[in-house]
Specification:
The protein is an alpha+beta fold. The protein is about 35% helix and about 30% strand.
Length: about 200
């Protein structure tokens, strides 16, 4: 049994209502999840940009459910599903994991920041990770800025690493430690509160 499955029914942290929450993905939401993943806005920033067929998606998710080192969650705000947060390559020995996220292309402004805040809390408070890492294609400047704002540090840049639409692009590698997030968290929460008040 996955550790995070046993803890899914436990409140993570009492967050302000405006942040929303991460929760298990219901089987009835798999087609919605696929519609986001297949959208032009999401696919252009992924390693795999081809359209994914429903049967392939369902088989992939069935394999994810059996995996001991993957955890996919739905982000919900005001009872509306708005995005997916994924933890992969979860290493329980070294307490490290990779993560990624994508949202409904029609999601409200500020959704990405709320998802990132909750993902960091989940990684360090529920999965009990020591370090969280991610990779971003170098042309995805919005997400690069977002990660840096949350305290992620650049740990590498892989030149011409990925072939995208007949053009080689670079890949940034970012990482953040639990202690770094604990230090950054109050500032980011205050910032998200202020941004939410403006919307």
């Amino acid at each position: 049994i996955k550790i995070w499955q046993m803890e899914m029914n436990i409140e993570l942290v009492n967050q302000a209502d405006f942040l929303g929450k991460l929760r298990p993905i219901d089987d009835s939401e798999l087609e919605l999840m696929l519609s986001w993943r297949n959208s032009d806005e999401v696919r252009k920033n992924m390693y795999t940009t081809s359209i994914i067929e429903l049967n392939d998606h369902l088989q992939w998710y069935a394999n994810v459910q059996k995996s001991l080192n993957k955890c996919y969650l739905m982000y919900e705000n005001q009872r509306k599903p708005l995005g997916i947060v994924a933890f992969t390559d979860i290493d329980a020995v070294n307490k490290q994991s990779s993560w990624a996220f994508y949202s409904d292309p029609k999601s409200p402004r500020g959704t990405g920041g709320k998802m990132e805040f909750l993902a960091l809390d989940y990684a360090f408070n529920v999965l009990k990770m020591h370090k969280l890492s991610c990779e971003v294609l170098d042309y995805n400047t919005a997400v690069i800025r977002l990660h840096k704002k949350f305290g992620f540090r650049q740990e590498g840049y892989f030149r011409e690493q990925h072939l995208h639409q007949n053009h080689y692009c670079g890949v940034y590698r970012f990482g953040i430690l639990k202690a770094e997030w604990q230090k950054e968290r109050p500032t980011m929460l205050e910032l998200l509160v202020k941004l939410n008040q403006r919307i």
